[in-house]
Sequence to fold (1040 residues):
Amino acid sequence: MKSTWKIALLATVMGILTLFYLGLGVDTRYIPSPLLDKPAFPFSAEGLDGKGPVVLEAKPGKWVLVNFWGSWCVSCVAEHPYLMELARKTRDRSDFAMIGVDFRDTREGGLRFLSRHGDPGYRHAFDPEQRIAIDWGVYGAPESFLVDPQGTIRLKRAGPLYPGWFEQEAMPLIQGMPP
Amino acid sequence: MWIEIAHFATIAALLVALTQIAAPLVGITLGRPVWIRVGRQAAFTSAALLTLACAGLILSFLKHDFSVAYVADHASLDLPIFYLATAMWGGHEGSLLLWAWFLSLFIAFAAWRHWRTHPLSIPYVLAILGTVLAGFLLLVIFLSSPFERMLPPPPDGRDLNPLLQDPGMVFHPPFLYMGYVGFGIPYAFAMAALLTGRVEEEWILATRRWTLFSWAMLTTGIVFGAYWAYYELGWGGYWAWDPVENASFMPWLTATAFLHSVMVQERRQLFKTWNLFLITTTFALSLLGTFLVRSGVLSSVHAFANDPGRGVYILVFMAVLLLFSFGLLVAKADSLKVEARLESPLSRESAFLFNNLFLLVATATVLLGTLYPLAIETLTEAKVSVGSPYYNKVFIPIMLGLLLLMGVGPVIPWRRVDRTRLLRALLVPTLAGIGATALALGMGIAHPYGVATAALIGFVAVSHGRDFIAALRARTGRSGDSILLAPFRLIGRNKRRYGGFVVHVGILVMAAGFIGSGLFQEEQDLLMKVGDSTTLGRWRLTFTGIGQVSRHNWDAVEASFVVEGPGGQLLLKPQKRQYHRNDMPTTEAAIHSTWREDLYIVLGDRVDDRWAIRCYRNPLIVWIWWGAGLMALGVVVSLGQGRGLKRRDS
Amino acid sequence: MSRPGLVMAFFAWLVVCSVQGFAVVAPASAETAGTAPSPGVPSSPPVPVAATAATSSVREAAPPLSSGELREDPAEEVVRRIAKDLRCAVCQNQSVYESNSTLAKDMLGLIRDKVTAGESETAIREYFFSRYGDYIYLEPTTRGANAILWLAPFIGLLLGGGILWWAIGRWQRAGNSGDGVRDVSAGPAAAGDPPVDLRDRIRGELNRIDL
Fold:
C-alpha cells in the first residue's frame, strides 16, 4: 500500500469523524429562512375573534412583530407570558405593533388558548389551512418575524422568543432605523 | 423484579465482557493458555447473562410492568401479545440491548466453533469482540438504559408507535442487527490476522460462512424494511433513500464487494490488503449506521436533544474502533507481501476488481448523499435536502454498470483469456441483450434506464443460463445422470458457485420489479362518495360503503371497494386507523397482489360526504419480494458448501 | 478493438446512459411547465395567496360532484409531479405528496389551488423555493457546491476505472517478469494455457475450486 493511499484512507476516516463531531452540536431542526431582508408578504385574513379582517400592509409604516402560533403547540404556551409582557410594555409605542397568526388550528382551540393563557391584547389572524404560514415559509411553531416600516423582514426566530429578546435583538434594529 | 434481574445481568455481562478483553491478552503476553480459556468462558457467560437480560425485559413487557419506564413508553394494556413481546426493540434502548445480545450470542458461537481450529486468532478475536460488546453495554447501562423504573407507575402505558405495529417492522430490526453484528466476526478475524501477522487466506476461509450468513441477514432485513414501507406507510413506494435506509444499504454494498473479492484471494492469493480494507469498512459502516440512527445527527426528530451525551459517547466509541482498525491496517499493510501478478486485464480477477470499483463508488455516492446535508449545515449556514430524485438519477447508472459486469463475470475465465475468444463467448448474451432491448421498446418502455435494464437482464440471464447448461451437458455427458436429476446434482456438487447464480437470478428478478414499479406505476387521486366508481388499468373499482371497525388498541374507518378485474370480483378494505394512545392516524392500504401487478388503495381524509382516495397500480412489485426470496435461497445453497475447497474429482 | 478501447467504450456507454437519463427528466418537466390550465377551468391570473387564504377550499381542484364513473382531474398529474419533489419540511425524509402530516396536506392543497388557478409548474416551484430555500427541494440543485454531489460519482468511476486499468497493466507486467508464478490451485492439466472452449473452461472450474 502506497503512502498516498494510507494518508487518503486515514484522512477520510478522520474527516467523517470530525464532521460528526461538529454535526452533533447542530440543531437539525433549524431551517434557515431565505426571507431575511426580503419584502414581507402582506395579508388580509379573517380575525380569530371574528371581528373583521386582520391586515398586514405592504408598507406597514411601523415595526411589526408577526408571531405564528397554534393552540396545538407546546412551546407556544412557554412563549406566551413573554408575548403578554411585550405587548404590555410596547402598548404605548407608536412605532411598534404585534400581530399573531393562529395557524393549523380550530377557532375554538385558538380562543380557548387565549382565554386560558391570557389575551395579550393584539389581534390574531386565523389561518386554519396554513396559507399565510406557508406563504411565510413557516414550518413549525412558534415562529416570529420582525418586519420594518418599509415592509422588509429584518429578523426571524424559529422557536419561542426569550425574555429580553426585544431589547437584545429588536431594539438595536429599531433604533438604527427611525420610521 | 424481572427488570432488576435483567439490569444486574447486563451489568454482570459488562464485567464479564471486560474480562473477555483482558484475560486472552494476558494469556498471550504470559504465554498461559489457561487465561485464554478464561476469555472463552467469559464469552459463554456474557451470552447467557444477556439472554437472561433480554428475557427479563420481554417478561416485563408481557407482565405489563408499567413501572419500567421503557415498558410504559412502548406498550399498553391492550397492545396485542405479538407486538407486546416484540416491543422490546421498539425503541432506542431496547434495540441497543438486542444488538448487544446478538453480538454476545455470535461471540459465544464463534468461541465454540473456532476454538480448536484457530488457536492463534481466537485470543485476539475474543478481545476485539469483547471491546465492541463492552462498548455497547456501557451505552445500554449508563446512557440508554431500558431498565429504569418510573415510580409511581402509570395505570397504562403510552403504547407502541402505531407505525411499528406491523409484522414487517417486527422482523426488520432483528434481521438487520444480525447482519450488522455478523460482520463483526469476520472483522475480528481480519484484525486478528493483522495482529498475528498471518494474513493468509485462513481468516477468510474461517469466516466465509459468517460473511455469507450476515450478508443474507442484512439483505433480508433491508427487504423487510422496504416491505414494511410499502405496506404500512401508504405512499405506494418501498424505498425512499432515507438516511436510515442508506445507513443499512452502505454496509450491504461493501459486503457485496467483499463477497466477490474474497474469491480472488481464495483462488489466486491476491488482494490481501484490499479484502482487509473491505471487511473493516463493512463493519465500520455497520457501526456508522447505528451511530447515524441512534445519535440523532441526521434526523429531524429531536429525540436526543436533551441527551447529547449519548451522541458524543457513540462518536467516541466509533472513533476509537475506526482509528484502531484502519490504523492497524495502515501500519501492517507493508508487511503483507504484495504479490501482484495479474496475468491479464481480461480475466475474472480484474472483472471482480471492476465489480469492486462500482460497488465502492456506489457506497461513496450513498455516503456522500447522506452526509452532504450534514456537511453543508455544519460548515455553512445553508441547508439542503438530498432526496430520492437525486439517488434515482445518479445511482441507477452505477447499478447498470454492475449488472453488465454480472453478465460478463461467469463468462470470463480466471487468469486470462484472449480477446476474440471472450468476444465470441459474449456473442450470444449480447444478442439476447439486443433481443431484450427490442422487446422492451415493443412493450413501451421509453425511459433509457428502463431499456438499459431490460437489455442487461437479457444479457445476464443468457450468460448465466448458457454457463449452467454447458455445465449440465458436461455432466450428463460424463456421468450419465438423468436430465431431471442432473441440475440438482450439479448444484449439489457445486453449491457455492450455483448458490451465487441463484442470487444473481434473484437480482435480475428484482431488477425487473424495479423497472415495472418504477416506470409503470399508475396512480389516481380522487374524491369519491359511496356509489362512485373508477377505472384503473384492468381494474374497475366501486366504492360500496364505509364503516367503523375496532380492534385491540385501535378504531378505524374502513372503506369497502368492490373491484372487478380479470380474476373476477374482489372486496378490498382500506382503513384509516386511529390508535387510542396516539394522535397521528395511520393508513392501512388495501392491497391485492398478483404476479403482474398490485392494486393498492389508500383511504384518505373525509371532505364533506366524500373521501379522498388514492389508488395505485404497481406493476411487478411482487417480483421484488420474490427476487429477495431467491437471493436468500441462493445464500442458503451456498452456505451448504463446507470448507473442502480443493476438491478434485477427475 | 484494443483493450483500453473496450474499457473506454464501456464507460462511454455508461455516460451516455446517464446523460440520457437526465435528459429524459428535463424535457418531461419542460413540456408540462408551459401547459395551459386544464380545460373547463377558467384561466385566471395567479391569485395572491393572502386573498384566497380565508375563502378558498383545499378541495377546489377536485373533480365535479357526480355519482358514477369518476376520472382523475388532469391537473392532479401536475400536482403530483410538483409535490413529489418538494420536501415535507417537518418530516424526516418524505415528500409533500407522501407525507401524512398536516403541513404536507396543506401544502398539497395549496399546490392544487395554484395549479387550478393556472400557475405554471415553474412558478409554483419558484414560490416554494423563495419561501423555504434549497431545503424544500428533495433534488439538490446543480449550483455551487452541490455540483460535487452530481459530479463526484461519475468522476469517481472514471478516475477509479483509469487507475484500476493502469494498475492492472502494471501488475501484469510485474507478474509476467516474475519467475513463473503459478496459480497454486490449478491442477497440473491446467497449469499453462487457459481452457480451450466454454465447456472445457467450466469443467475445469468445477473440478477445481468451487467458486
